[in-house]
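Lab notebook: predicted structure, single chain.

Context: the supervisor wants predicted structures on file for every construct in the current expression panel, including those that have not yet been purified. This is the next one on the list. No modifications to the sequence; it matches the entry in the shared construct table.
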Amino acid sequence: MTDIQKPEYQPIPLPDRQELSDDAGFAEVQTYWELMRKRHTVRDFSDRSVPEKIIATSVAAAATAPSGANQQPWHFAAIACHEMKARIREAAEQEEERFYAGGGGDEWLSALEPIGTGADKPHLTTAPWLIVIFAQRYGVNPDGSRRKHYYVPESVGIATGMLITALHKAGLCCLTHTPNPMKFLNDLCGRPDNEKPVMILAVGHAAENATVPAAAKVKKPLEDVLTICRGEKHEKE
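Prediction complete. Output recorded below exactly as produced.
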């Protein structure tokens, strides 16, 4: 296993700096906002192929994410093999059938009704790529001893968000999938025991007849998700 050696603390000048005027910065973030408003989770994928270099570069972008103590506790297994995808779909649908048969509970199933999900997961084989995201629960030193990792869920979550953004920037769609159990993915992808599979991203181009649930277009207004603290009094924007 690749291990990042612990270096001595040595400050260096900021190697990359982006300086923008306030107006230019606002224009850039507006452009980014408009781009992200066009991101949609889809379940209807085209079988159109996606070059490996797009997937690899998107993962490279995600791997620049900040992490606790710079331990970078993630690994991404990108799967194009149809047989492997079929095994994942079979295992996922077995669990989903139990979930939708009542195992998920009435409240959860009711919350999912406007989204239109079900036990069938054809996207897991139709999408040209599945990216399995592993969280490294702890590190392994060269002598085999364990090394504690810090803020693993937070770090992996940030990296996953950056991956989804990179894929969208490349003109692709993705769907987050969290089947349970997922332990078989370690063997399938050849990953060690210290890594826990936490999510699968189905990645590809949307089908010509792709749809999204109307409920998915309903987003909370900015005043419900942002508080500006300008002093003693908290004001909402």
